[in-house]
Amino acid sequence: MKARHLPGGPVVFSAGEAERIALARRFAIPSIERLEAELEFEPDEDHVDAIVAWGTLRAKVTQNCAITAEPFPVSIDEDVRIRFVAEKLQEFDEDEEIELAEDEYDEIAYMGDTFDVGEAIAQSLALAIDPFACGPDADAARQESGLDKPVATGPFAALAGLKKD
User: Fold this and answer.
1) 19, 34, 80, 111 from 121: Cα distances, Å
2) Domain ranges of the chain
3) Contact 47, 87 (CB under 8 A)
4) N or C: which end of the chain has fewer CB within 10 A?
5) pTM beyond 0.85
């Protein structure tokens, strides 16, 4: 999208089948059945070369359960806040970890006079996917394998394993 020619109202972006397949592969999940974002854009009042976008990201994905590895469907409905910043405006160390408050914008750099809304939506989806999501059979699998039992801790926990019945 051109930074100088922003739309006057909300814009809906939808990923096509090839894009969803590529993103599912990129994010190491079985599939993305639906991905769309409705965003509004306006110039950032604080910086001449920055654009803010906000709206909603909606997706239907299939993930693998972190416990059973079985696939299960997940619906995502997230508010999105993105600030596209001209590369020369970014003022942070790339190795520095940055914590954002819920009302702050994720920042994405752009060069020239265009910014990549599709990549911004993809990155927002990546942040919305729970890497440790548990499917409907996770509790039963935990119970069956004994993962739901508390683990003994403390100075004598290792000695308890040596105790004869």
Assistant:
1) 12, 13, 9, 18
2) 11-160
3) no
4) C
5) no
The C-alpha atoms of residue 21 and residue 12 are separated, in whole angstroms, by: 20
pLDDT of 137 above 60: yes
Strands 71-86 and 106-110: parallel
The answer to whether 123 touches 115, Cβ cutoff 8 Å, is no
The tokens for 95 are: 């190795």
Cβ atoms of 113 and 2 within 8 Å: the answer is yes
Print burial letters for 24-50: b (CB count within 10 Å at least 16), e (below 16). beeeebeebeebebebebeeeeeeeeb
Q: Rounded distance, CA 123 to CA 63, Å?
A: 17
- Model confidence pLDDT, tens digit, residues 9-57: 899 999 999 999 999 999 999 999 999 999 999 988 877 778 999 999 9
Predicted pLDDT at 138: 78
> Given the structure tokens 């119970």, which residue do they identify?
143
Here the contacts of 126-130 (C-beta below 8 Å, separation 24 or greater) are 126/27, 128/57, 128/59, 128/76, 128/78, 129/27, 129/29, 129/61, 129/63, 129/74, 129/76, 130/63, 130/74
Euclidean distance between CA atoms 147 and 132, whole angstroms? 15
Question: Burial level of 103, CB count in 10 A (0-12/13-18/19+)?
Answer: exposed
